[in-house]
Amino acid sequence: MEAKVPEDVEENVLQPPDWLPNGWVMEVKCGEDGTPYQYFVSPTSGSKFRMKAEVLNYLFAEMDEHWIQSKEKAACSSMLPKAHGWLPKGWLVEIRAGGENMDKMFKFYVQPAMGVRLFSKEDVLLYVKEMKITECDTDGQCDTNSRDNILALVEFNPSALPQGWVKEIVYRKTKQGMRKDPYFTDPVSQYVFRTRRAALRFLETRKVTKHQFIQKTSVHDLYSFEKSADLHECLHKRLTNNWKDAKTPTRLPKPRGSTQREKANFNGRTSYCKDTDSDTSTGSIAPNELQNIKNKSMEAEREQSSSAKTIKRPRGRPPKVAKENSWNTKKARTKR
What we know:
Layout: H1 11-14, E1 25-30, E2 36-41, E3 48-49, H2 52-60, H3 63-74, H4 80-83, E4 92-98, E5 104-111, E6 116-118, H5 121-130, E7 150-156, E8 166-174, E9 177-185, E10 192-193, H6 196-205, H7 219-222, E11 228-230, E12 260-266, E13 269-274, H8 287-306, H9 326-335
Antiparallel strand pairs: 1-2, 2-3, 4-5, 4-7, 5-6, 5-11, 7-8, 8-9, 9-10, 12-13
């Protein structure tokens, strides 16, 4: 909870420092205990900082230039943020699969906070003006009650990123259920990033790592249709349950009646026989025969070990041998 700045605050706290660039704004706010806090706001991006080092790092990284480039690029008519500039803040674009053979994709406009889903621009503007909800009329071609046909959720101008960036949450079917993967697309370089932190690091350093990539069909071209369109070929695999959930394949259990059992081991060669449900089959072994085979294998191992020429080294330390003292031996001879 922020409080008003008291009148007895020192003037040096209310005055902006000399190192602050021209155009930047300094805000002073007080906490609950009355301690004043300074905030430095960028006039281009609106980013707020508390420390001088943070402002200098922001300036040295030329972040304002990146914000200006993104804003200019987003103003192009081919970009999704420009085409959906009428969409109110906080609304998302939902892409679903539909049609008789799931060969079409439909676009909806969603307000997650209120749980509202509308089908056209006119319906959204009518809801904003009169709070009237219109039903999504797709002639039964798209089911909006299920989550199995969701392909993506698209957000324009996500927080902490320059204007023109697009966040896409891709939905994929897996054996464990529905999987959601976020992607952030830069409007200037068209590079795609998996996390917001990676996108911010790219803006600060301008270094491209192996984790960034450029999509063959960008998000701007993929979802530039109105209401419905034919399902793009790259979206078919999102509806199939063939996504790899684990790096190592799982082993299937062996069926009953066909498990293998070690029969004998002669001279390093192992033979196997198949267990069956009944003992009358040709592949089964009686208990007394199995005991004879084990005895023969043990005898063969004994003969092989006895015929080996290797000498085993005894374990432990060798016994101590008492050394004969030369002085005692001379003294014993003189006595004799």
